[in-house]
Prior knowledge:
Layout: E1 18-28, E2 31-43, E3 50-59, E4 65-78, E5 83-90, E6 94-103, E7 106-116, E8 123-133, E9 136-145, E10 151-162
Antiparallel strand pairs: 1-2, 1-10, 2-3, 3-4, 4-5, 5-6, 6-7, 7-8, 8-9, 9-10
Amino acid sequence: xxxxxxxxxxxxxxxxxxxxxxxxxxxxxxxxxxxxxxxxxxxxxxxxxxxxxxxxxxxxxxxxxxxxxxxxxxxxxxxxxxxxxxxxxxxxxxxxxxxxxxxxxxxxxxxxxxxxxxxxxxxxxxxxxxxxxxxxxxxxxxxxxxxxxxxxxxxxxxxxxxxxxxxxx
Length: 169
């Protein structure tokens, strides 16, 4: 199968491309702390954006999967001057647009727009930090939701477990 060439505009975020897996921790004032597993896939089709899918699941104390947690999917667009736009959609009725900047292998994003369906939980904003550290993808997410101000929610360390394989469709 032929892998399309990465669009040259994506060079600043090319380090993200591939399949990543790992574990993290989470908590928030309205919930108990927890451990989770995660898989993230950054792909591309040769056009000037990355595709993005993240799946998480609750882990027990032994590290075994208990049940699915969150899922999100979207697109990452590199702009001039190392600026970045990210559009994310969640099956819980939330859509987010993040804006931010790439500096070497560090990405910092904050919500520019949040839209919610009538049945979605209250969520007003987020801040995400991604970085490549010793070959691993480290990330942290701060959230403002359910009457709480922006504060730490989840973070994880992921290892690259595979190259990107394009869809055959």
